[in-house]
UniProtKB/TrEMBL annotation:
Organism field: Talaromyces marneffei (strain ATCC 18224 / CBS 334.59 / QM 7333) (Penicillium marneffei)
Keyword Iron among UniProt keywords: no
Protein name according to UniProt: Ankyrin repeat-containing protein, putative
ANK repeats: 222-254, 256-288
Taxonomic lineage from the root: Eukaryota, Fungi, Dikarya, Ascomycota, Pezizomycotina
Classification via SUPFAM superfamilies: Ankyrin repeat
Keywords: ANK repeat, Repeat
Length: 330
């Protein structure tokens, strides 16, 4: 209990002298056969949380601020915390011990450490954890850590939702490594992507995805494709990138039957609408209510988009849009 309290205060205040001594004690006890894996898991979580707090402070207080002047450099502290994480991970020299420690759920979020570094945007810590996570049994690594077996939330979706492209890169690099060694059909099959993630889409995220296999044809929890998610976010560069990869432009999601063209018409992204039309998007598709993209555009007051769609679907002039809308909903 005393060791627990001392470590907690030392991590909170980044007391190097205390932490160095405590880690020497932990290493000595561990090497002597005194293994408190719950305690080690708690220390790892504490270091990650402190790293996230330190990163937030560094982002809000520049190098010339009073906050920075009162302490040592931000990079030195970040490097020290990362070295602590590496130091304690290096103790876990047994595959089973790594599995127990790194796949242990925290009591509040029910996340693994890899989820937390993805959520907080800590790419170096992410790579360090991935390097130490056991890869002997792919089911142990893939199912709980990447497929979101517990609540559908994965490190990848957490990183995407919070805009941490650098963490996405680290995760995808590891996915590719597993892809090269995994058996055919044994891959990430349920990277969940709900509405909250769609709203938080980050343009650079799509640029790091390997557009082959499950990523190119990925369908989210409601059947939405990666193109649908990118279109919904309103990010022109992401949509353009995906369309160049010859991704299917007319796949509807399951809940409302909306295609990328329909969701663009709802949100009013004219430049993206033009991209979709050039790529072969079909304006005649109707959703579960019987509405096409044209009806949605008119209903949401997007006149320019309505005119583009009406000319494409019926060859009508702008004065006939209202009549088209009325006939479409009857």
């Amino acid at each position: 209990m005393l060791l627990h309290v001392l470590t907690q205060f030392s991590i909170i205040h980044v007391s190097k002298t205390c932490l160095d001594k405590l880690f020497e004690l932990i290493e000595s006890a561990y090497n002597s056969g005194f293994s408190k894996l719950d305690y080690i898991s708690w220390v790892i979580d504490g270091i990650i949380v402190k790293m996230s707090h330190h990163q937030l402070l560094a982002e809000h207080f520049g190098p010339g601020s009073d906050h920075a002047a009162n302490g040592e450099s931000s990079s030195e502290t970040a490097d020290y915390l990362l070295s602590l994480l590496g130091r304690i991970l290096s103790m876990l020299d047994d595959v089973e011990v790594r599995r127990i420690v790194l796949f242990k759920l925290d009591v509040y979020w029910a996340y693994f450490p890899i989820h937390h570094v993805s959520r907080y945007g800590l790419p170096d810590a992410c790579r360090l954890l991935l390097d130490h996570m056991p890869l002997v049994s792919k089911s142990q690594f893939l199912e709980p850590a990447l497929e979101g077996r517990f609540d559908g939330i994965t490190p990848l979706t957490l990183a995407a939702a919070h805009g941490h492209t650098d963490v996405c890169v680290a995760l995808v690099e590891r996915f590719r490594k597993i892809w090269d060694t995994a058996q055919k059909g044994f891959w990430v099959t349920s990277i969940w992507n709900g509405e909250d993630v769609i709203k938080g889409i980050y343009a650079g995220f799509w640029q790091v995805l390997p557009l082959h296999g499950p990523f190119k044809h990925y369908r989210g929890a409601y059947g939405e494709t990666v193109l649908y998610a990118a279109v919904s976010s309103g990010d022109w560069s992401a949509v353009s990138y995906l369309l160049k990869s010859k991704i299917d432009v007319n796949v509807p999601e399951n809940s409302r039957g909306w295609t990328p063209l329909i969701v663009t018409s709802v949100k009013g992204h004219e430049s993206i609408l033009k991209l979709l039309i050039e790529a072969g998007a079909k304006g005649e598709h109707r959703d579960r209510l019987g509405w096409r993209a044209l009806e949605h555009a008119v209903s949401n007051g997007h006149i320019e988009i309505s005119e583009i769609l009406s000319r494409r679907v019926h060859g009508q002039e702008s004065g006939e849009i209202h009549a088209t809308f009325i006939s479409g909903i009857q």
